[in-house]
Write a structure and sequence with these properties.
A: about 130 residues; 5-stranded mixed barrel; B: alpha+beta
Chain lengths: ~130, ~325
């Protein structure tokens, strides 16, 4: 690993350390609110809805199994304050995304988005409850 | 060499911290050691933001986010409020306009009331517990909110709003995740437009009295009057006791009386104080919003549509709320 790669790694971790994570419409009691998990995957469905928009995506685990994730975002009306609107055109099946989230305590592949890197590289921060 | 050592001093602690990370349920993932986040971001925040609950709370400062210009829900750029200019004086007997909650609350949210009434959030501080009567405390314990110190998973809540998409009702209109409101004035009314479920509330300003024995309605019956050139004071009764006061599950009875005090400080700033008086549930009146500041938004500002859709809530419950409590 060369210096540049080391520093890219450090910068990535530093960004995650410094970042904050935010609550959604419902409370977090069934989620593990002690840690964040980042998963890369491929979008299968994007549902713009109230009170929560939902993102379904597939990711492959270390045993080669495909895991079907369902993760919630804010309501259809929110997020535009940071320049990323939750429009129906924002994501489509086949898009590659990186999702940073808190996940369910019981191990189900269900999460609550804190940050989402869009296919075009933009960062969506789920900053409204 | 010195450069290398400096870098190593950064790398080693980071790698040591990473040892605390737990195994992943799904590979291709990375996990943030949370201790660092707790001490860095949550110092000084209330008890509800600490320990296992620390990710309940936001921070006013979010690092590494987008810097794209704000747009409204139709994609139109939002005119930023004027800054650095001295505001003109408040006009006489006029609180009309679109007003947005100013600043972040103590949890870092710009929206007001995520953890309960803005001045009395359910955050673990004893001084933020309302003065319950015995009946009030029993009613509070029957309520199962999804926010605050007594929060339960969403699948187990009996919050009429979160479970059924019932209307928030008044005064939860003011105390539940308030972001912005629009006030319209006619010669005999002030009308409040709430983005939540796109509903409105009429405050009669024609000198009439409150009804003596009103049938309850979601938003009750409101009358208001100007007590000076810039302060409009509203009294409300007749609210529906099925509704909660706030996100934290604070109850109220049909005896509830609410006072709202809208004080326009100058042209661009307003403060709202909400005082609750319910002798069945509380031993004395208590202040739910205390001089909460609002800023006047530009005339082209659009209130967002924020609806609770029962069918979409049902879909959410089947995909998210229910699987995570099995």
């Amino acid at each position: 690993m060369n210096d540049r790669a080391v520093f890219s790694f450090i910068a990535f971790l530093a960004l995650l350390f410094a970042s904050t994570h935010l609550s959604a419409h419902h409370g977090n009691a069934a989620f593990d609110a002690t840690k964040e998990v980042t998963v890369m995957g491929v979008v299968t469905e994007w549902i713009v809805a109230n009170p929560h928009s939902l993102l379904k995506f597939d990711a492959t685990d270390d045993k080669g199994n495909v895991v079907h994730w369902v993760v919630e975002s804010g309501a259809a009306s929110v997020n535009q304050a940071r320049g990323v609107r939750l429009t129906k055109q924002l994501l489509k099946p086949g898009d590659k995304v990186t999702v940073t989230m808190m996940v369910a305590k019981n191990g189900q592949p269900v999460g609550r988005i804190h940050r989402l890197v869009l296919p075009d590289g933009r960062l969506m921060v789920n900053d409204l409850p | 060499m010195q450069n290398f050592l400096t870098r190593a001093m950064i790398v080693v602690p980071v790698l040591m911290l990473s040892l605390f990370a737990h195994a992943q349920t799904v590979p291709q993932s990375s996990e943030t050691p949370s201790k660092s986040s707790e001490t860095k971001e949550h110092k000084g925040l209330p008890p509800i933001c600490q320990g296992d609950n620390r990710f309940n709370c936001a921070s006013a400062k979010v690092e590494g986010t987008t810097d794209q210009p704000a747009v409204d829900s139709w994609g139109r750029p939002v005119t930023p409020p004027a800054t650095g200019q001295k505001s003109a004086p408040a006009p006489k007997h006029d609180i009309s306009g679109t007003w947005q909650v100013e600043g972040a609350d103590e949890f870092g949210f710009r929206i007001l009331g995520v953890f309960g009434a803005g001045a009395m959030p359910s955050d673990g501080y004893p001084e933020h517990e309302p003065p319950y009567t015995k009946e009030g405390l029993e009613a509070y314990h029957r309520n199962k909110p999804v926010f605050g110190m007594t929060a339960v998973p969403a699948a187990q809540t009996n919050d009429p709003l979160d479970k059924f998409c019932d209307p928030p009702g008044f005064p939860r209109d003011d105390l539940h995740r308030l972001d912005s409101i629009q006030l319209l004035q006619t010669p005999n009314q002030v009308v409040v437009l709430y983005p939540r479920d796109k509903h409105w509330r009429v405050i009669w300003a024609d000198g009439r009295e409150l009804p003596k024995d009103p049938d309850p309605t979601w938003d009750g019956y409101s009358t208001g009057k100007w007590v000076d050139n810039t302060t409009f004071v509203v009294q409300t009764n007749g609210t529906d006791e099925r509704t909660w006061l706030d996100n934290a599950g604070r109850p109220h009875s049909d005896a509830l009386r609410v006072e709202e005090r809208f004080h326009r400080v100058d042209r661009d700033h307003m403060q709202l104080t909400v005082t609750l008086d319910d002798p069945k549930m509380y031993t004395k009146p208590w202040v739910a919003l205390n001089n909460q500041p609002f800023r006047l938004m530009p005339p082209d500002f659009t209130l967002n549509e924020t609806r609770c859709s029962p069918s979409e809530l049902a879909n959410y419950d089947s995909l998210v709320s229910t699987p995570i409590v099995k």
